[in-house]
Amino acid sequence: MLTGVRLTAALLLSVVAVSGQTIQERGKRAIDATLAALGGDRYLAMQDRVESGRAYSFYREQLSGRSRATIYTRYLTRQNSAPPGALWVRERQSFGKEGRDGSLLFAEGAAYSITFRGARPLPKETLGRYQDTTLHNVFYILRQRLSEPGMVFEYQASDVIDNRPVDIVNITDADNRTVTVYLDQRTKLPARQLYVRRDPKTRDRTEEITIFSKYRDVGGGVQWPLDIQRLRNGEKIYEIYSESVEINKDLTDDLFTLPANMKMLKPAH
């Protein structure tokens, strides 16, 4: 009878025998194909992005809010000496026509809610959730984290999701964060992703799923999903349908920094 270690080794050998590759080699090959489908070097050269459309929030599967939304994203140059969990991106989410309903700003380890009254620092829990979500985002991983030390890509299986054959790959970083991505076998593009987070206080398990669809060429061969849905523990909580996505718009620093004369409000609780 095989011991646990010998059984694991035997299973790995069988994978190599069948496919000619280890699960890590096959996983990396699948991820490389996805990067190529997204635009390859053109995707990696994307400096910023502007997504504009309709955003919807849900509570217990019922529509609880809607708004015009514009999301501005700017990628920063990653420093090789940076720790694995560092974020190299700035993001501003503006709501209503020309941001009249306020905006959220995430940059350099800080988060603010901005209205005509001023800027209010958001709770640490909100910032932490944004950072965790971004670090698990497959598009961010492909743009900013592929060369990060300790990244592991492991092929899991093939399956059919939403009537589409997919390849399933686990991506794990040096801090043991894992996101499972489901890659359309025909287009090689991400169809969905899944990761599990734990409440830092209660340790309760929360399953976060994001579904990507309606890909379009948004410039120079770069593919991006226009429809993005998020589910938490099986219930839809958010959807954005972009009517316009543009890249490399030369977004400037002032969009991601607070004006010197802006009033600072008390932190949110």
Architecture blueprint of SSEs:
Elements: H1 4-19, H2 23-38, H3 41-44, E1 48-59, E2 62-75, E3 89-95, E4 103-107, E5 110-115, E6 118-121, H4 124-136, H5 138-145, E7 152-161, E8 164-172, E9 178-184, E10 190-198, E11 205-217, E12 223-232, E13 235-247
Total number of domains: 1
The separation of the N and C termini measures: 57 Å
State the oligomer: single chain
Structural class label: alpha+beta
CATH superfamily: Lipoprotein localisation LolA/LolB/LppX
Describe the global form. Answer: globular
Name the CATH architecture.
Answer: Clam
Beta strands, count? 13
As residue ranges, the low-confidence spans are 1-18
For the record, the CATH class is: Mainly Beta
Strand order of the largest sheet: 6-5-4-3-2-1-13-12-11-10-9-8-7
Biggest pleated sheet = 13 strands, antiparallel
Give, in order, the helices and strands. Answer: HHHEEEEEEHHEEEEEEE
| Helical content band | 10-25%
Strand content: 35-45%
Q: Helix tally?
A: 5
For the CA atoms, what is the radius of gyration? 20 Å
Averaged pLDDT: 91
State the CATH topology: outer membrane lipoprotein receptor (LolB), chain A
Model description:
With 269 residues, the chain is an alpha+beta fold. It contains 5 helices and 13 strands. Strands 6-5-4-3-2-1-13-12-11-10-9-8-7 form a 13-stranded antiparallel sheet, covered by helices on one side. The longest helix has 16 residues, at 4-19.
Quick synopsis:
With 269 residues, this protein is of the alpha+beta class.
Main attributes of the structure:
single chain, 269 residues, alpha+beta, outer membrane lipoprotein receptor (LolB), chain A, 5 helices, 13 strands, 21% helix, globular, disordered N terminus
